[in-house]
Structure formats: C-alpha cells, structure tokens
C-alpha cells in the first residue's frame, strides 16, 4: 500500500462512518502508525498519525493527516497532542514558518486548531476521493502525495533523532550514543566546530580543565574563553532534562563565574537537539545565552582496497 492508496481508503471509510481500523498497517516506514475514525461514534476529524516509539498521540508531537469532514479539507500537519504536553515539541523553524490550522481555515474548528499546516488539500468525493491543492486547486497526483508524506516524515526524523537516542539501534551503536558521548565528541573535535573558531578551551599547567569544570556547586559541562574578549563562556548540553532545568542550570553556573571568577561579561551556550518553545520563551528573559542545535549525519561509504 502506498500513501495515495492509504489516504484514499481512509477518506472513503471516514465518509461511510465505519470505525474499524484493524486492517490498517501498524507501522509505516519505520514509524508507528495509528488510524482513528472515532470512539463509539464517528469523529468530526478522523486522523492518521505517525509517531516514534516513545511518543503517543495523547502525549507528544507527530506528523498527522487530519480530515475535516464538514469542510471537505484534509490537512497534513505538524501535529500536537491536545491531551498532554510533551517535554519537547516542533522546533522554531516549524512554529515560525508554518501557519496553524485555525489560521488556515479561519473557523472555530472542532479539534486540533493549534497544529501547524504542512500541506492542505480539498477533498472531492465522486466515485472515489480525489485531492486538489487547497490554495491553487491543482490536482494532486499520487507521487506528489507520497512525496509530501515522505518530506514531513524526514523532518520528523531530524527533530526526534529517534535512532540516535535508541541504544539498541544500529545507528546509535555505529556512531555514538548522544546523551553519554556528545560532550566527549565536542571536546575531541573542538577545532572543527563553530565553537572552536570563536572560543578557546582552558588548559592549566598542561592539563585540559574545560570539560566537567569543577565548581563548589557542581561540575559545568564545558567552560571556555571568548577569543576576542577573554570572557568566560559556560556551555551546557541539554541532555535528558527539561528546558526549564537547563535554563536554571546554566543561569546558576553563569552566576558562579560572575562572582567567583570575577567576570561580569560571562556568556552561556546551550547545546540542544532542538529549539523548542519553552527554550524560546525562557531565553527572552535570560540575557547572554545562545542556543546551538546539533544535527546527526550518518553516511555509509563503500570501502575499496587500493
């Protein structure tokens, strides 16, 4: 079953009011897939959602087809759970560059108005459902629909980096398990990073002291110096912790440097897998802190003997 077959089958069943989902796949291109037409009664907005194993439709963020039956509109969305707020969500490049479903449709919607629109389609039902672009009226062919879903799933993979966080996966075993080894990787490759071009690691009596820099309130992940100003820069990795914890932690260490190392010009850098709204809002009230986002790039190259 390809994307077009899945979507057209879903649309046709939604209009019939049939709530059965047992015959739909439970996985799609490595992601969990869940279909819902309603519980006990037909839903006003049936959906098809795609999630990583640690995320659910009631607690997380995920690509989702949402069918607004009364409006005859299908939206491929950067979806957000309406039940529970997950710790992280779609990054700022999504929330800033894509409009919400409520903004697109301009109506009091029954559900999911705060999710973001990736693509939207007008649904025409003659003998079988067909799709046209919501804005232009252009007919959407099967390869285009396949491409739309593949693109948003690829974006989701970049955001969640599920494979890199799963210690059982071949990707994490073949590269490095980020939460435990990202700090070492940054230090070992310092001169090849954007950070290394702007900041110097600290060496005392021939010993590198930047990593896990000791203080009486706990060790900092990394402490470096600005090449131009000579001021200290506290670097904290947002690992398995909340945005609020990370902000509090880096503010505490910056305060320590300002007092104990006599540096009122101290800055902070947070290194995170994604830039979520909690970080965005917190940084509006915390001066002198930047965010760097890391990306995973896993390549295979054939080995050939000389």
Notes on the protein architecture:
The chain is α+β, with helices and mostly antiparallel strands and 306 residues long. It has 2 domains: 3-160, Metal Transport, Frataxin, Chain A (2-Layer Sandwich); 170-293, 3-Layer(aba) Sandwich (Trna Endonuclease, Chain: A, domain 1), CATH 3.40.1350. The chain contains 10 helices and 15 strands. It has helices spanning 3-16, 92-95, 101-105, 142-160, 162-165, 170-174, 178-188, 194-198, 243-260, 277-283, and strands at residues 27-28, 31-36, 47-51, 61-68, 73-80, 116-125, 129-133, 199-201, 203-204, 207-208, 211-213, 220-226, 232-237, 267-272, 289-293. A 7-stranded antiparallel sheet has the order 1-2-3-4-5-6-7. Strands 8, 11, 12, 13, 14 and 15 form a 6-stranded mixed sheet that branches. The radius of gyration is 24 Å and the shape is elongated.
The CATH topology label of the largest domain is Metal Transport, Frataxin, Chain A
Instruction: State the separation between the terminal residues, measured CA to CA.
Output: 44 Å
CATH C-level class of the largest domain is: Alpha Beta
* Helix-strand category: alpha+beta
Oligomer: single chain
Strand order of the largest sheet: 1-2-3-4-5-6-7
Shape: elongated
CATH architecture of the largest domain: 2-Layer Sandwich
Low-confidence stretches: 162-176
Count of discrete alpha- or pi-helical segments spanning 4 or more residues: 10
**Helicity range of the residues?**
25-40%
Strand content range: 25-35%
Number of strands: 15
Total of domains: 2
Major beta sheet, specifics? 7 strands, antiparallel
């Amino acid at each position: 079953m390809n994307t077009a077959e899945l979507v057209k089958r879903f649309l046709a069943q939604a209009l019939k009011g049939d709530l059965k989902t047992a015959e739909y796949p439970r996985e799609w291109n490595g992601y969990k897939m869940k279909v819902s037409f309603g519980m006990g009664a037909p839903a006003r907005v049936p959906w098809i959602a795609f999630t990583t194993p640690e995320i659910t439709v009631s607690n997380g963020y995920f690509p989702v087809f949402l069918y607004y039956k009364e409006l005859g509109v299908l939206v491929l969305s950067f979806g957000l759970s309406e039940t529970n707020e997950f710790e992280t969500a779609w990054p700022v490049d999504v929330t800033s560059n894509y409009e919400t479903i409520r903004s697109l449709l301009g109506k009091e919607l029954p559900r999911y108005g705060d999710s973001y629109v990736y693509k939207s389609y007008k649904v025409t039902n003659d003998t079988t459902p067909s799709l046209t672009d919501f804005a232009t009226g252009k007919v959407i062919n099967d390869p285009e629909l396949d491409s739309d879903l593949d693109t948003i799933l690829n974006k989701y993979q970049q955001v969640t980096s599920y494979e890199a966080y799963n210690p059982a996966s071949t990707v994490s075993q073949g590269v490095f398990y980020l939460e435990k080894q990202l700090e070492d990787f940054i230090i070992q490759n310092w001169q090849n990073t954007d950070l290394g071009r702007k900041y110097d690691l600290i060496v005392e009596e021939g010993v590198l002291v930047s990593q896990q820099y000791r203080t009486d309130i706990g060790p900092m992940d990394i402490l470096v110096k600005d090449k131009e100003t000579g001021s200290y820069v506290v670097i904290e990795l947002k690992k398995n912790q909340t945005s609020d914890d990370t902000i509090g932690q880096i503010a505490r260490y910056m305060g320590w440097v300002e007092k104990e190392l006599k540096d009122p010009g101290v800055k902070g850098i947070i290194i995170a897998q994604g830039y979520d709204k909690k970080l965005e809002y917190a940084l509006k009230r915390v001066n002198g802190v930047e965010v760097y986002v890391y990306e995973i790039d896993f390549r295979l190259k054939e080995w050939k003997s000389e």
